[in-house]
Amino acid sequence: MKRNTVLKLSGVERHYGQGETLLSILKGADFTLNSGEIVALVAPSGTGKSTLLHVAGLLEHPDSGEVSINGHPCNGLLDDKRTAIRRSEIGFVYQFHHLLPEFSAIENIMMPQMIAGLPRVEAKQRAAQLLDYMRIGHRGAHRPGELSGGEQQRVAIARAVANAPSLLLADEPTGNLDPETASYVFDALEALVRQSGLAALIATHNHELAGRMDRRVTIADGKVVDF
Ligand code: ADP
Ligand code: MG
Question: What is the pLDDT of residues 78-97, one digit of tens each?
Answer without folding.
Answer: 999 999 999 999 999 998 88
